Amino acid sequence: MRVGFIGLGIMGSGIALNVRRAGHHVVVSDIRKESAARHIDAGCEWADTPRLVGEASEVVFTSLPGPDNVEQVGTGPGGLIEGMPRGSAWFDLSTNSPTVIRRLHGTFAAKGIAVLDSPVSGGPAGASKGTLALWVGGDKSEYDRFLEVLEAVGDKPRYIGEIGAGSIAKLVHNAAGYALNTALAEVFTAGVKAGIPPLELWAAVREGANGQMRTFDGLAGHFLPQDFDPPAFALKLAHKDVRLMSELAREVSVPMRLVNATLEEMTEALNRGWQERDSRVAMMLQVERSGLDPDDMKCTPDEISSVRNPG
Question: Is position 33 annotated as part of the catalytic site?
Fold first, then answer.
């Protein structure tokens, strides 16, 4: 296929090369032409503007720093909208705002051009090796039409819903990771200050139940099926553990904003009379605050199994 690629930074550079290695005709562009040297050596063509990329392509991919850059490339002077022909498609790989990508989707749809949000996860190493998760929102028929190219971008493409869905998934994924980093920083500093060398502490906790679990797999045991009875680990026992961690941190003068907030959350759950239920039942407080009906969050065991064991 004739593929356009705009944005040859730390992620886009490797992705564009993989698309070229897959046998597609690739036209590249970036604000710095020198960043395209490897791509030109690999047989890609250079275009000076997004408009020229669009004119030369059946499908365009962008990998850009943020929403402002995406809008500029899409609808700014010399932008994609000036060059992409009716019937072509634009997949934005950037971590973008759902609001922005939905607005661009409407603007381009009026000209017969499909826009899909397709953020990736896997870091620079995954971009180079082609081992990226790829979450796509938009027209399913366009996803199917360009699946061959998407599989050159990453080895785990997944269509997840209407326009904006990919961006929402990426933001959930990344925000969860950074929140976990903050929590880990809290408990690790307290553990080290309380007397355990950091390497020994890390070696110990990575062998525990949480250490051996994929980050999001824990959601499937209790929260998604809303199965809190009988408990795997009772709330009253989990509350005691978190309280003891909070007390230890106070003894060694380590602030614990997230752990203390967690203790407050679990205390509220205890006050609901949930002490004998599974500790994950405290997560339902946030469902209540969000305004969601609990049934909107609930997944059946068969649905969960279909994700864990696709095919």
Answer: no
